[in-house]
Amino acid sequence: MNLEELRTSNYVRTSKKSNNYWVSFFSKKMSKYIDTYGEGFNLIIYAGEDSNEGYYIIPFGEVKEFFIEKNLSKDKGNIKRWVATIKNHILKINNCSTDIDIKDYFMSKIYLEPDILEDNYSSDYYIENYRQEINIRIKQNVFREKVLKRFNNACCITNITEKDLLVASHIIPWSHNKSTRLDPLNGLCLSILYDKLFDRGYFTINSDLEITTIKFTAELSPSLHEILLAINGKKISLCGNEIPKEYLKYHRDNIFMDRVKILSKC
Predict the structure, then answer these.
(1) pLDDT for 158-201, tens place per residue?
(2) Which residues form the HNH nuclease domain (predicted)?
């Protein structure tokens, strides 16, 4: 791809892969692209002057919420810019508390003009669905970061803090209500096992933030019974705003009771 041609309608920056793709975007120049193209341009980060070492093509409209005043670098003088690095496909902007997963933008031309796209990406239907999928992933990543922050990056039941074992678990499931999908108040920070148990209704949480578990039946293995017995009546920890009581009630009345009904029929 010709960098000079790309620069006419995309904000292109070169970097070094060996330096974790250290890159800066200047506020004044960003404003010019926004004035000209609105959100319809890409942030393109190249490792060097060609694409041999990799590149990222990131649609600005899907990361614009991170390029805001408070995340500007603390440079001296009148320089206003955002400074970022990329490691393991995670974009970290200085002064921004949210890590952005951009692996789907690596070495992909899907967001460039149709005449630059590879043949197998030329379908308008494919392009639109791909864009929607990436946009959802970005928003889910933001949801996760906000939920984990509300719980001080620890499982609200076990206090496990290993981030790769933590899940931003939906109280009202993703598929049940569009309006609550990305509401951080609709999330619990749970370790992997308890996320699955909560998601499948093996336990729920009352309005006092106390855990209620499924009663022991012949359908539960003794090991699972012990796990549930250990948390029954335990109060979850919460560092952020209160969880809306209607969210917890929905889980009790639907997810939890569905599991109760299933086990009662066995």
Answers:
(1) 999 998 899 999 999 988 998 998 899 999 999 999 999 999 99
(2) 155-206
Q: Are residues 119 and 165 in the same domain?
A: no
Single out the residue in 112, 147, 182 at which a domain terminates.
Answer: 147
Name the E strands within the chain: 11-15, 23-26, 42-47, 55-59, 81-87, 90-93, 100-101, 166-170, 187-191, 203-205, 211-213
**DSSP conformation letters of 40-83:** --EEEEEESSSSTT-EEEEEGGGTGGGSSGGGS---STT--EEE
Token output for 206: 């009352």
Tell me, yes or no, whether 230 and 168 share the same domain: yes
Tell me the residue range of the domain where 121 lies.
3-147
pLDDT tens string 36-85: 888 888 899 988 655 566 889 898 988 888 999 999 998 877 889 999 99
Cβ atoms of residues 19 and 46 within 8 Å: no
Instruction: Select from 84, 118, 147 the last residue of a domain.
Output: 147
Locate tokens 């920890």: which residue? 237
32: its two tokens: 């010019």
Angle at the Cα of 246 (from 243 to 250), degrees rounded to 5? 110
Statement: residue 137 has pLDDT above 80: no
| Cβ atoms within 10 Å, residue 7 | 12
**Count: domains in the chain:** 2
